[in-house]
Amino acid sequence: xxxxxxxxxxxxxxxxxxxxxxxxxxxxxxxxxxxxxxxxxxxxxxxxxxxxxxxxxxxxxxxxxxxxxxxxxxxxxxxxxxxxxxxxxxxxxxxxxxxxxxxxxxxxxxxxxxxxxxxxxxxxxxxxxxxxxxxxxxxxxxxxxxxxxxxxxxxxxxxxxxxxxxxxxxxxxxxxxxxxxxxxxxxxxxxxxxxxxxxxxxxxxxxxxxxxxxxxxxxxxxxxxxxxxxxxxxxxxxxxxxxxxxxxxxxxxxxxxxxxxxxxxxxxxxxxxxxxxxxxxxxxxxxxxxxxxxxxxxxxxxxxxxxxxxxxxxxxxxxxxxxxxxxxxxxxxxxxxxxxxxxxxxxxxxxxxxxxxxxxxxxxxxxxxxxxxxxxxxxxxxxxxxxxxxxxxxxxxxxxxxxxxxxxxxxxxxxxxxxxxxxxxxxxxxxxxxxxxxxxxxxxxxxxxxxxxxxxxxxxxxxxxxxxxxxxxxxxxxxxxxxxxxxxxx
Length: 490
Ligand SMILES: [Zn+2]
Fold this sequence. Notes:
This protein is an alpha/beta fold.
């Protein structure tokens, strides 16, 4: 199946009704864009002894911002975080952090990566760790090159290939139609070196249960889509690691009084209701029940199920013609491989063939409910790490992390809370909280130095002066050079 394949109209309708998404959009197991590989950017020397003085620190450890701090970095670790007045700056390299802000590197907990060129786009945007949701043997090799320092890129936590039922949604997924097949695939993914198991919505209940059990026995977690065989509350109770895209949530909170029945009403019925909401003839609560929404958040909390909402994905899912034109004109698009750009344009064209611009705009009203869901999950205290679903159409590697932060703030979270779910909160999801996600002595020096404070205005998260990857410092000029290297490599 070609990368960038869009959902068929029927599957698309299912996606809308069920709250499912393609997720793997663009996923294939043979690599992404192809074409020439950009020259790896040689890393600055590791092991440098660096002191950043007089800097404002956002530690993301539950405390607030601290001014006038010195952060000492050595051998890839944060050696010390102390007030500048109390620490002699005897490091080899002293960076004046006056007017600057230091925070942990960002974590994108839902991406699809395949190619070399994609890697520098993450640290160039301050993203130092990603969780990849469809692993390939090629990616395991690529990860080794990043770890060895021969390629600039993020730390990668990756699932194996998607495990789906029959019929599978993507042609290149692994398929399990019995508990024995499910267990065998989990064992194979473990042996291959993948970190966790990705489940998909076509799995039958028995096979899903066997995969869950075998994953537990193998010491792996499993994450992904809610199998259709389960109700959403059963999925939350299944010890799934995280549910992606708020899968199943929308259909679970439909207000019965709306007359809309997920799975059986026509899409025209949905449009008719959305039109009424748009025109102020009925409130959004006529379609989605606020009390059910809040109740489901409590169910999530009780089940300890994390949600990675991927609002960037939903935002870009149903673009109008004018919005696609604007996306194509973004200067960052030149860092996306031309073949991927072509896939995205074709995907958009497929939507245009199916929907009018008015209908595409109506989908935005449905997307509005995702913000309310996120707000309720946050209020309930549910884990909501940030993830973008990058490589889906117009969800750009690295760049989209800053859009996801904006979405969290739009949903009503404070800037600091949004940043927390993009750093220490996401690190906890990944089980890496003892290594990354906070500016605390002893942790790895995956850090961003900013020219302005994102805890005051989330838009400042893009104002990156330097990024530290395992203690290696990349200046803005070096990051820009790495980006240009990508564009020139196509
Ligand atoms: Zn995905």
